[in-house]
Design brief:
Length: about 290
């Protein structure tokens, strides 16, 4: 305690000395003209995930720092071919904010980006004047999941949420989806991600998961994330997944393997991902 007190005293003396040496400067606020225009964009969720049945529409909000007079604000859109929104927003006197609707019509299983910007002549320079959105319209597949980790199995929707990217909802915990990627050859990757809350001797800790088919994952989220290879004839992939708590350790199955085997099957024969077999013959010729 004496050492701590002595050290604190030294800091206090130094602080008083430093304050006494600070020079005074005259602050000159920026003029109204130097602040630019009046309009800015309120914060909005940058990612919009739509189920196939969802309406293809969302809104964002344009606001003004000065609503004392009527004004028309000009907006810029990065992809006018895909997204429909007004080019100008008209504000009445004393109207400070306005919601703007964006509509679109994109195929399921695709992802699109949109950047909305307030025109320079209208933009308030000391606030947000640009918003970037990623809109993902999911394609739904019928799936079946067999979990060694949970010792359970059930039917589940599988959502394609972008190019080569998929999502299973509510896998190990409600509102905790499992994401994975699949390339054109069927290689499946489960990137490091949250899985569930783990009860560690009455202490709840966040548990994470990562693909570990190559036995290269660690308890800090490192590793390739490679989880297995999808077979488009059966529609199934066995995902080798490591479950771990940062700096604490990982869980291993009773089999003694380094990862749990989680089997995911795309059930419908006429609606499942296909892979590129064009390189198969070349591989056989090289053997």
């Amino acid at each position: 305690m004496k050492r701590i007190f002595y050290f604190n005293c030294i800091l206090a003396v130094y602080a008083l000395t430093a304050v006494s040496c600070v020079k005074e400067y005259e602050y000159k606020p920026a003029s109204v003209t130097e602040q630019g225009g009046s309009a800015f964009l309120e914060n909005a969720d940058p990612t919009l995930l739509l189920m196939p049945e969802d309406v293809q529409q969302f809104t964002f909000t344009v606001a003004r720092r000065d609503s004392s007079k009527a004004e028309t604000i000009t907006l810029k859109c990065s992809d006018a071919d895909t997204f429909i929104l007004p080019n100008t927003i008209s504000f009445a006197e004393n109207e400070g904010r306005k919601d703007v609707a964006v509509t679109f019509d994109v195929p399921t299983g695709t992802s699109h980006k949109l950047v909305v910007t307030i025109d320079d002549k209208d933009a308030f320079l000391y606030a947000q004047t640009e918003l970037a959105f990623t809109i993902i319209r999911c394609e739904e597949y019928h799936g079946y999941f067999e979990s060694e980790f949970l010792e359970d199995e059930w039917e589940t929707p599988i959502y394609k949420v972008g190019e080569n990217r998929y999502m299973l909802p509510d896998v190990y915990e409600v509102d905790a989806p499992l994401y994975f990627s699949m390339d054109e050859k069927g290689n499946v990757t489960v990137e490091d991600q949250y899985a569930l809350m783990y009860d560690n001797e009455d202490e709840l800790l966040p548990m994470w998961c990562i693909g570990n088919a190559l036995d290269d994952a660690d308890i800090w989220g490192g590793g390739s994330g490679f989880a297995g290879i999808y077979d488009d004839e059966t529609g199934a992939v066995t995902l080798s997944i490591l479950f771990y708590v940062y700096d604490l350790g990982g869980l291993t199955p009773e089999s003694g393997e380094s990862a749990f085997k989680e089997v995911l099957t795309f059930v419908d024969d006429d609606k499942r991902p296909t892979i590129d077999h064009s390189m198969d013959n070349d591989s056989d010729d090289n053997e």
